[in-house]
Design goal:
Order of helices and strands of chain A: HHHHHHHH
Bound molecules: zinc ion
Radius of gyration of chain B: 20 Å
Structural class of chain B: alpha+beta
Order of helices and strands of chain B: HHHHHHHEEEEEEEEEEEH
CATH architecture of chain A: Orthogonal Bundle
Helix content of chain B: 25-40%
CATH class of the largest domain in chain B: Mainly Beta
Number of helices of chain B: 8
Largest interface: A-B, 95 and 71 residues
Helix content of chain A: 40-55%
Strand order of the largest sheet of chain B: 1-2-3-10-5-8
Number of strands of chain B: 11
Number of strands of chain A: 0
Distance between the termini of chain A: 50 Å
Distance between the termini of chain B: 28 Å
Structural class of chain A: mainly alpha
Oligomer: heterodimer
Mean pLDDT of chain A: 76
């Protein structure tokens, strides 16, 4: 594990006219890492396909909202180019055979498309939302269906997300990323292995020390808001 | 029971068990208890989603593995197909009934429990059992004790109706008791309402006293 842990960032321009074909097979050579300052600036660039407050959201949030609300295939392609290689790495580390790995990636990405109406940016980052889909898929492959909590969602999350809540959640995720970056390599390795499904239940007590409390209270606010909306629906 | 019922829960899923569930390393039986508790408890739902945020950060940080040609085209080509919808939507459609939140309702396949007598008025319904452990519903008449038992490992007990007390405290609807193998306890149901619990162990449950040892293989799966 190297010390700079943001991982490579695929470079595509904001907006839909990205040369998608070039990104179809992102190789490490094609990946250029952006300095943090540029990345955070990119966060605030506007996208011609979004308007209003959502223009300030991260690229991934805007792509996912475009998939959810406009069934935008170009935006989905951008999500695919970003997440599919990472998902492949994830499922291989979780124990999938390489031959199986791309089938799982395909399943997960199709779930992202088909379940997009359930994505709520006020409750989860795109990466967190895709993470749980992939983890559930891994478990379903390995054993039988994983017991899941009762869904807590209005059939369609509201179309205009609460921009303040979405931005605050993105900031909490940045805090989490920074905390992960500050860990020493051994700690960091344990955390990564835990979330990638490489540790057993008895090893897992190690997965503490991340500042989950702050993001938890932010998520809790999102849940309360949703409960409120659900009550109004009855 | 709907997912909107949740208040006054004072005994939650421990950090270690929640982390194991969130990262996918918890057994099927314990996962059922955790998923059911989360269906009733916003605090623990937020804790799960916080872990998923961390999982997302880890996923983001991966270097990625090169894809073989054709995967992208296959996925893009499949966007307009309907196939597989039933499977991916299973977690969305699940709904609870009576006192049973969706995960239990699913384990019951949508039908009321088929209770088996355990002795002392106590009844059980096995929901799942495999090498890693078992999950069952327990029905304890008001004011009655659960047969004294020990367990080889961890036991999680979640109250779905009524409540019970043992030497560690009182447990009401939504509360989870996490008991390790040292705890030899006699949970006693509250007076006034029959108690229904979801209990999971990672080892065969062994009853003393009321259930003769020779019968144990029938009960302790
Ligand atoms: Zn709880």
């Amino acid at each position: 594990m190297n010390d700079d842990n943001h991982g490579p960032e695929l470079t595509f321009e904001d907006g839909g006219e990205t040369p998608v074909a070039v990104l179809a097979n992102p190789s490490l050579d094609a990946i250029v890492k952006l300095p943090k300052t540029i990345k955070s600036a990119r966060r605030h660039m506007t996208n011609p396909t979004t308007t209003g407050e959502s223009a300030a959201f991260s690229d991934q949030t805007r792509w996912m909202l475009a998939v959810r609300d406009q069934r935008d295939k170009v935006a989905f392609g951008l999500l695919f180019d970003h997440f599919a290689p990472r998902l492949k790495g994830f499922v291989i580390r979780s124990g999938a055979k390489p031959a199986q790995a791309e089938d799982i990636v395909q399943d997960v990405m199709l779930s992202v498309w088909r379940k997009a109406h359930l994505y709520d940016p006020a409750r989860a980052q795109v990466s967190a939302w895709i993470y749980q889909i992939a983890r559930n898929r891994n478990i379903d492959m390995a054993r039988r269906n994983r017991p899941l909590p009762e869904a807590l969602t209005a059939e369609e999350p509201e179309h205009e997300p609460d921009a303040g809540q979405v931005m605050a959640l993105e900031q909490e995720a940045d805090v989490l990323r920074a905390a992960l970056d500050r860990l020493n390599p051994d700690q960091r390795d344990i955390i990564e292995r835990a979330y990638l499904g490489e540790l057993t239940h008895s090893d897992i007590a190690e997965v503490t020390g991340l500042p989950l409390g702050t993001i938890k209270s932010r998520i809790r606010l999102g849940l309360e808001r949703l409960r409120h909306e659900l009550k109004d629906l009855r | 029971m709907t997912a909107t019922m949740t208040k006054d829960i004072s005994h939650h899923i421990s950090d270690a068990v929640m982390a194991a569930y969130a990262t996918g390393s918890l057994s099927q039986a314990f996962s059922l208890v955790v998923a059911t508790h989360i269906s009733m408890c916003d605090d623990c739902r937020a804790a799960l989603e916080a872990h998923e945020a961390a999982g997302g950060v880890v996923l983001e940080g991966l270097a990625g593995t090169a894809l073989t040609g054709g995967l992208r085209a296959r996925v893009m080509g499949a966007l307009d197909e309907d196939a597989g919808e039933d499977r991916v939507e299973r977690d969305v459609e699940a709904r609870g009934f009576d006192v049973y939140p969706a995960p239990v309702a699913q384990a019951l396949r949508g039908q009321g429990p088929r209770w088996r007598k355990l002795g002392g008025g106590v009844r059980q319904c096995i929901l799942s059992a495999d090498r890693e452990g078992s999950a069952r519903l327990l029905y304890i008449p008001a004011g009655r004790p659960v047969p004294e038992h020990t367990h080889g490992g961890l036991e999680l007990t979640l109250v779905l109706q009524g409540g019970f007390s043992d030497k560690t405290g009182h447990f009401g609807v939504g509360d989870v008791e996490e008991a390790d193998d040292d705890l030899e306890h006699v949970p006693t149901a509250d007076k006034g309402e029959d108690c229904i619990c979801l209990a999971a162990t990672d080892a065969p449950l062994r009853f003393h006293a009321i259930v003769p040892r020779i019968l144990q293989p029938f009960f302790a799966i």
